[in-house]
Amino acid sequence: VSSQKEIGDLELCESVVMMAVWLKASTFCDGPVLPTKDLSAAVSWHTAHFGMQEVARTDTTVTLKRGGDADGSPEISLCFAVNGQDPENDGAAIRVQDAAVARAELETAGVSTGNWRVDHRDGEDHRVFFAKEPGGLCYCFYQPLKMLRGLSAFPITPQSDDGIVDTPTLKKLIGRLVDARVDSIGLLGSTGTYAYLSREERRRAVQAAAEVIKATPEGKPKPKLFVGIGHVRTTCCIEMAMDAQKAGADAGLLAPVSYTPLLDEEVFEHFAAVAKAVPNLPLIIYNNPSTTKFKFSNELVGRLANELGTSVVGIKRGGGPDGTDHGAAHAALATAVGERATKDFSIGYAGDWKIIGPLLGGGEAWYSVLAGVFPERCFAILNAVESGDAEAANRLGADLQPLFKIMAEMGSLRVVYAICNILGLTDAAPPRPLLPLPAVMQDAIKAALISCKLIDP
């Protein structure tokens, strides 16, 4: 998982150090060579610490390479020259398949590395760290980040009794999440009651949210906006996708909603039709079988990911029943997805009350109802997971169990509406025929919030 919050403090521990795959290298000054004052010293250091091999040498230059072996990794070359230039003023940007693996490899070889950070370049967010060699050259190792990662907060969509979205209140809810620096906002998910809203009201909600995100002050990260586009008819899903894309959504959350439970081939064709009609809106598989009565198999997810390509960028799914081996389940799905699972297809999880296991098992994104109201507490759990501290993550999760227990029993949608009422964020009620929880349950929720130290007594 990679979140924007406190990423500079991220520490990753690798029990088994692997050789990182280098994908591309380019010098900072765009020249063909890197300056050095001593060819032999450059060769010695780069072979010992970067795992490179000498392949060519002249009186003033030496070329080293890495990769290009039987494992199929690309061959990457760096050429060094004694040319009178100052190595302190140059270096190279090295794109890697997995920045965490690259950093672990270097640190095991005795190379000091800088803190993690996220840079935005060429229209992509990159996870970056720096390393410096004794001669003065600086190296920037980077990995493009997947669109779906970190903490995704799912707010309610406050609305009137007749289904008119309260856009001023919605903007306030979105603004709180932008201020908290969540990685993405899941608008019009199940918590956002997309199924209860007309096309026009969905459009108004997306426009309102996009307006707030667009106004994010310079220097503060803008969260991605994912929008629910599910409907019982494929043609209506296409319309919702068009509206979302036009309003500024970064991706569409597509659940196979249907009165009659669907078959695998019907779901595949459903996704294919939306992807073809709205090619500029990537789709997220929304696996929510308790609502849709359809469960995506690993095989179907793999087919969608590979046959529809980058039109499908990830999946939001539950963590499975108690007793699930989350690491094995995650690995099985990644295997079904294939090579894209390491590149641009993200496997993320929902279900706040049992999220720790799926995240520790490899989840790349947490799609959270609780983050829609208490993002800071969710970040605390996520940061513990990212640092590899399973004990802290489980402890922080246990601290929230009084509330999670109620969410599991009563349904997170009803509970989060009650929370928003208790916090004074809105007086909106769930859309009918859903009813607000009775006073006794609202009192229990308030007591749980106090017990979890989410609000003061």
* Spatial strand order of the main sheet: 10-11-12-13-14-15-16-17
Could you tell me the strand content as a percent range?
15-25%
**Structure annotation, total helices:** 15
Low-confidence stretches: 1-16
Distance between the termini: 34 Å
Overview of this protein structure:
The chain has helices at residues 39-49, 99-108, 167-180, 199-214, 234-247, 264-277, 289-292, 298-307, 326-337, 356-360, 375-386, 390-399, 401-410, 412-423, 439-451; strands at residues 22-27, 34-35, 53-57, 61-66, 76-81, 91-96, 117-121, 124-132, 138-144, 150-153, 184-187, 224-228, 251-254, 283-286, 312-318, 346-350, 365-368. With 457 residues, it is an alpha/beta fold. The strands form three sheets. Strands 10-11-12-13-14-15-16-17 form an eight-stranded parallel β-barrel, surrounded by five helices. It has a five-stranded mixed sheet with strand order 1-6-9-8-7, with helices on one face. α8 packs parallel to α9 (326-337). The protein is elongated, with a radius of gyration of 24 Å. The two termini are 34 Å apart.
Q: Summed up, what is this model?
A:
The protein is of the alpha/beta class. It contains 15 helices and 17 strands.
Q: Topology, please?
A:
Blueprint: E1 22-27, E2 34-35, H1 39-49, E3 53-57, E4 61-66, E5 76-81, E6 91-96, H2 99-108, E7 117-121, E8 124-132, E9 138-144, E10 150-153, H3 167-180, E11 184-187, H4 199-214, E12 224-228, H5 234-247, E13 251-254, H6 264-277, E14 283-286, H7 289-292, H8 298-307, E15 312-318, H9 326-337, E16 346-350, H10 356-360, E17 365-368, H11 375-386, H12 390-399, H13 401-410, H14 412-423, H15 439-451
Parallel strand pairs: 2-5, 6-9, 10-11, 10-17, 11-12, 12-13, 13-14, 14-15, 15-16, 16-17
Antiparallel strand pairs: 1-6, 3-4, 4-5, 7-8, 8-9
Helix pairs in contact: 3-4, 4-5, 5-6, 8-9, 11-12, 13-14, 14-15
